[in-house]
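Hello everyone,

My group is preparing for a crystallization screen and wants a predicted model to guide construct design. The compound we'll soak is pyridoxal-5'-phosphate. Before spending weeks at the bench, it would help to have a computed complex in hand. I've included the protein sequence and the ligand's SMILES below. Output in structure-token form would be ideal because that's what our pipeline reads.
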Amino acid sequence: MKYLSTRHSRTDVAAPLGFCDILLEGLAPDGGLYLPAHYPRIDAATLASWRGLAYDELAFELLSLYIDDIPPADLRDITRRTYRAEVFGSTEITPLKPLPQAEGSAPLALLALSNGPTLAFKDMAMQLLGNLFEYELGRRSEAINILGATSGDTGSAAEYAMRGKRGVRVFMLSPRGRLSPFQQAQMFSLQDANIHNLVIDGVFDDCQDIVKAVSNNLTFKRRHRIGAVNSINWARLLAQVVYYFAGYFQATETNEEQVSFAVPSGNFGNICAGHVARMMGLPIARLVLATNENNVLDEFFRTGTYRVRRSAETHETSSPSMDISKASNFERFVFDLLGRSGERTHQLFGIDVEQRGGFSLNAEEFQRLAAFGFASGSSTHADRLATIRSTWQQHGIVIDTHTADGLKVAQAHRDPGVPMLVLETALPAKFAATIVEAIGIEPPRPPALDGIEALPKRFTPLPRDAQAVQAYIERHTQADGDGAVAAFAV
Ligand SMILES: *Cc1c(COP(=O)(O)O)cnc(C)c1O
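Reply:
Good plan to model first. Here are the tokens for the complex, ready for your pipeline.
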């Protein structure tokens, strides 16, 4: 499989890249995002042969369609080591949790994606990425220093995926005093030498500004091989396609049936994987996009207008991992919507978003949107509380705030006879305060995480200053100085 940029012009189609070329990259040089040259269609015989595979086998079959520059035996070993019951809590890896409905109604269930080490669905992809990075860097005798900023979920998923990996160091910036005690405990209790928690005297935006400043220092970036694992990474998206298939097989008995998925969305990574699954031929009736009060994407699917928000317009909500002002993976879907025109995608994202803060589809493009099977809606803090409460009362199941956004919007888009799977993107233990507000009890916590707040914490406080962060990175990359040189985009 070859890869191209969503903003490609005809000339660079001639020099396409392989999977391992883009694995360690961020944005394409033209500012676009990488996508495969086409989506392989899964025929009926293949779909039938995939039903009944274990999760790690299914992952191998699916990834093999997109990765031809890793020997199959090695890729098989990587998926086997990644998707293990010891890491994800059950042999199904992504089990269904049924929410029993009245007689005659179509089934409704949660697709449990959050039983990995950090209790959010980001582990599903990040754990694979950790193993792919270690493998590819080892093959090249190279090393990478991952620099990131986090307000919680992404940073911890990245650290738990990269801990102890050869050739990888992580420098993760977080704002002092802003993470929940649970999130702090998760990240700061890691004792692995290749994980560096840098606690910045500032807010999340300050952390992001520092990451940007360091990344814009091209000399420094090249010398210290600074890279990223952010949500635009194609390998992360690809890993997420697998669980749409796994969920489909669990919810159906034959491949003639259809299923809908509801997806709590922020940067459009998770639901974009559903779009890819649908393009591959998985029988998906609807992809229901759920947002919180930050409804940039809901607005787009209703009106055809994409309007990026200013940071002052971004709401701080009780489903904080969906608090976005623009959606970093959205360009991938729009590229497909536009018939894969690199020129038109460049116009909309490279020019209109940059200069005017958004764009509107023309009438013909907006009409085309209907064929892609999306529905959308948004929810509020009051909706989350009500949904968490009713799910607890009716089913005895505690759901997290993001999953509650998904479930609330899913209810409005059910079709007779079509099962609806709501993606469970985090466990409630991560967002205990809102759970207590909704139902008056502390959410259950996996036993392995009992008392983690009391573990010794390992972090370095630093001032709000890019120089100080660079000096820290310099000290800690020279100590065990591996000399390989490579440049990575952030
Ligand atoms: C990251 C995250 C989301 C949003 O996922 P996207 O891929 O950015 O759309 C939703 N819920 C939780 C809990 C998350 O951590």
